[in-house]
Amino acid sequence: MKQCSIIVFGDIGRSPRMVNHALSFADTTQYRINFYAYLENRPPQALLENPNIRLYDLNLRIINLMKKLPRFLFLFYAIVRILLQTLYLLIVLLFSRKQDFILVQNPPSIPTLHVAWLVKILRGSKIIVDFHNYGYTLLGLQIKQKHILKISEIYEMYFGMKCDLALCVSNAMKQDLLNRWGIRAQTLYDRANSSFLPLNSIEEKHNLLQKLDIKWKNQTFNETLLTYRERDEIQELPNKQLLAISSTSWTKDEDFNILVQALDLYNDYKNDSLPNLYVVITGKGPLKEQFEQIFLKKNTWWQNVKVELKWLSAEDYPKLLSVCDFGICLHYSSSGLDLPMKVVDMFGSGIPVFAKSFKAIGELVEHQKTGMIFDNSQDLFENIVFSIKNKSLQDYKNQVQNFRKITFQQEWQRVVLPFIQKLNKN
User: Fold this and answer.
1) 3-state SS, residue 381
2) Measured between alpha carbons, how far is 40 from 13 in angstroms, rounded to an integer?
3) Are 271 and 303 in contact (CB under 8 A)?
């Protein structure tokens, strides 16, 4: 059986696009898929159940231990980590059955790009690079040393140009890759997987909200934010309150100060014509603790707004999305060219999105059709109020249904499959 390797130096549970790649490869072709990634969170059930997909953990214990080194040894840690990951990945790929294709996610660029190139030279494997963003622009959010960033950019350009097929997430990135590095990429738009579907049963909605303890201040045990149980019957609450959600990795490419300030404005503006607003924020990351303290303090004096930070399981996350009235995306993109997967998931669950403005976002969120695009906290506040007063949220939801008509596998068969078939004939 022909072999294809998919390589992600990241948590498989946070790599939905690469998971969709694996499922499309396995279900559409005759390839055995070897999926290498960090297995930190439980992989999606569809991967575990697919007989043509095997999962391998790229986590190295020694690297995890080295993360505890003092900050001033960061450069030493980074060099050793790259060397160990390069050696480990090379051994895995060179001493297994020959890989006909190697599909790598970029970023991270190092060490996947140069290892894939070495395997191509030594074993004749074809390389597919899926550009989600530019790695050197993300690195620029963490460090300011220009010489290191320049080396990173040259590395990414040189090895990126060695691929046999380049994919990217937006037409803006497709044009930029061509202009910047002469790489002719194909745009493969993201789509949510089959677990992201609207939740239509009011009983399921009630049970989910009770399980997650989503309720307003002073609501009774039989009530949730949106529903209540009277005897054996569950009904919608007559005075509807709004439920919004934001998913985040709590990194520097998302400015949650915008949300804090917008909610301040909403709380102060609140009048009888506007409902209370409950916001759930889910995700893990380095800035979570800082904003958790901010929201705890705000909740003590906000009267018309409440924010809860919750960690949701892979099963509950898509369900809660579908219950929400709208999503909020604060991702602004280090390059201005990538498209946030969280918006795709929200659309897949049938809800509109208020998204931070950047160059490529208009390819995903259509302003005043599938949501609203904002520039700052005042803009976000005004967009929310405008959409509520004009009863536009339901109209946005109706428009989102058009996005859900096309699946990732259909996109994959249109863009990627012809390339695989062509190479198989040669």
Assistant:
1) helix
2) 7
3) no
- CA 290 to CA 260: how far, in whole Å? 12
CA distance 334 to 125: 31
Q: Strands 242-247, 277-282: parallel, antiparallel or unpaired by DSSP?
A: parallel
CB 135 within 8 A of CB 110: yes
Q: How far apart are CA 25 and CA 87, in angstroms?
A: 27
CA dihedral 267, 273, 278, 279 (to 10 degrees): -70
For 33, 93, 377, the CA distances from 3, given in Å and listed in that order, are 6, 11, 49
> Does the pLDDT of residue 424 top 90, yes or no?
no
Burial annotation 225-235 (CB, 10 A radius, 16+ → b, else e): bbbbbeeeebe
Rounded to two decimals, the pTM is 0.88
Quote the tokens at residue 105. 């996610």
The average pLDDT across 401-414 equals 89
Q: CA-CA distances (angstroms) from residue 119 to 84, 97, 123, 300, 422?
A: 17, 12, 6, 57, 21
Q: What mean pLDDT is predicted for residues 169-176?
A: 96
| 40 vs 384, higher pLDDT | 384
- Residues composing the chain: 426
Q: Per the structure block, which two tokens stand in for 195? A: 């677990």
Q: What residues have CB less than 8 Å from 254, skipping those under 6 apart?
A: 248, 330, 331, 332, 356
Structure confidence at residue 426 (pLDDT): 63
Q: Are 53 and 44 in contact (CB under 8 A)?
A: no
User: Residue 54's closest CA among 70, 39, 69?
Assistant: 39
Query: What kind and span of H or E run contains 165?
Result: strand 165-168
Are 102 and 35 contacting, i.e. CB atoms less than 8 angstroms apart? no
Which of helix, strand or coil describes residue 342? helix
CB atoms within 10 A of CB 386: 12
